[in-house]
Amino acid sequence: MDVDAYSFAQRRYWDRLDHLTRQRRLTGAEVDEFVALYRRTSQQLARLQSHSPDPELINGISAVLARARGRLLGARTDTWSQIAHFFTHRFPAAVYRAWPWWAGVAAAFLAVSTVIGIWVSGSGRARTALSLPANADRLTAPGGRFESYYSEHPHDAFAAQVWTNNAWVTAIALFTGILILPAGYLLFMNALNVGVSGGLMADAGRLDAFFGFLLPHGMLELTAVFVAGGAGMKLGWTLIDPGHSPRAAALARQGRATATVALGLAGVLLISGIIEGFVTPSGWPAPVRLGIGAIAELLFLAYVFGPGRRAASEQTALRSAAESERISG
């Protein structure tokens, strides 16, 4: 091992660690970098102690690590920076990495609900098979149960109620996903409910009201359900196929990602609950309500496929660098 060349190549990382150690405050990203550099430098010191006879070099790195260790053990966490880092990096990255799963869940959900809706609207047999009433006017008529559901409670109480309910549904979809079938059943039942309601409203000639009341909040709300179902099923598939990692390590890693998604979706569902509580029953023209819902949905997708994709790429690069360093060490 050429100690001089190695020291020259790694010096900038040691200097960066020392610089971060001396900073008064660190952002969330800088905290992650600080921890990664601390671990890396610790490993490098161990290597140098077995290869280098240069006590000055060893003492210099040891001093940097001692200062960093004091900062690591004694520093107070900047709570707001950590919260910001969660919503700018960890949560969108976790959602982005699971996107093939929740996109597949979305496609299946929409296909099932569409087929059921067409079946219910065009067939009396469907109503018999699903035990639906022959006369659904109480549900589908103007001012009926489908519409009054959104306005029968005070807006703030209704928003809180739907947020709690939706958070519960997504939590079940997420954490039963490890068994796959229970999550699939939950998603199917939700698709069935949407399809039956849509079919009955279509049969009554009120499909415009169905979409006008469902979509303002439903675009974002259903996307959150799709993300929950997809992330949950990805966790379940990790149990079946852990890839190149040991099963326990793969499950632990994916479990942390699933918990991150669960926590972040609570915020997404809060937004959809506010829309459902205040915008959907507002009486505003349908294009206005639909426009608000569409904007919320597009902003979420842009958030996932913009910052989320970049954060996922950064995390992958950091993991690859750490793994290469571990192997070389």
Tally of alpha and pi helices? 13
Principal-axis shape equals elongated
The description of the largest β-sheet is: none
Instruction: Kindly state the percentage of residues in helix.
Output: over 70%
- Termini separation: 12 Å
Tell me the structural class. Answer: mainly alpha
- Number of E-type strands: 0
What's the pLDDT, averaged over the residues?
86
User: Radius of gyration, Cα only, in angstroms?
Assistant: 26 Å
What's the helix-strand series? HHHHHHHHHHHHH
Percentage beta strand = under 5%
Low-confidence stretches: none
Overall description:
- The chain is mostly helical and 329 residues long.
- It has 13 helices and no strands.
- The longest helix has 43 residues, at 286-328.
- The protein is elongated.
- The relative contact order is 0.12.
- The model has no long low-confidence stretch (mean pLDDT 86).
